[in-house]
Amino acid sequence: QVLLVESGGGLVQAGGSLRLSCAASGRTFSNYVMGWFRQAPGKEREFVATISRSGGNTYYADSVKGRFTIARDNAKNTVYLQMNSLKPEDTAVYYCGARAVTILTMIPGDYDYWGQGTQVTVSS
């Protein structure tokens, strides 16, 4: 069992920045591929970014590429999402997920564990 707790969400103006954190506990954090997803009201959960177990490989959704950066600190059992140049369309609940299999994936159903989410609201 892996427990994930997100933090760092909030209200920000368009063009601003936020850094989300996801703290993990329960199993060896470095054994898991980590991902960030988001879900806006009335929409399905969508992929944002994912990072390999070592942090050496990352992959982003086209909608956030160049604005968001995913990183992890295995010593702190934490994955981060730095979000810059935020837009109103980035408004959503952001979730982190953990996946035991090595291969990076954009599919929510491929992740084994989820946090409770943190709200990000970007005002225009």
Explain this structure to me?
0% of the residues lie in helices and 49% in strands. The chain contains no helices and eleven strands. The chain has strands at residues 3-7, 10-13, 18-25, 33-39, 46-51, 58-60, 68-73, 78-83, 92-99, 113-114, 118-123. Strands 2, 4, 5, 6, 9, 10 and 11 form a seven-stranded mixed beta sheet that branches.
What is shown here, in short?
This protein is an all-beta fold and 124 residues long. Helix content is 0%, strand content 49%.
Roughly how many Å is the radius of gyration? 13 Å
How are helices and strands ordered from N to C? Answer: EEEEEEEEEEE
Query: What overall form do the CA principal axes indicate?
Result: globular
**Which regions have little confidence, pLDDT < 50, spanning 5+ residues?**
none
Number of helices: 0
For the sheet with most strands, the description reads: 7 strands, mixed
Report the mean per-residue pLDDT as an integer. Answer: 97
> What would you call the structural class?
mainly beta
How many strand units? 11
Helix content: under 10%
In what range is the share of β-strand residues?
over 45%
Cα(first) to Cα(last) distance is 40 Å
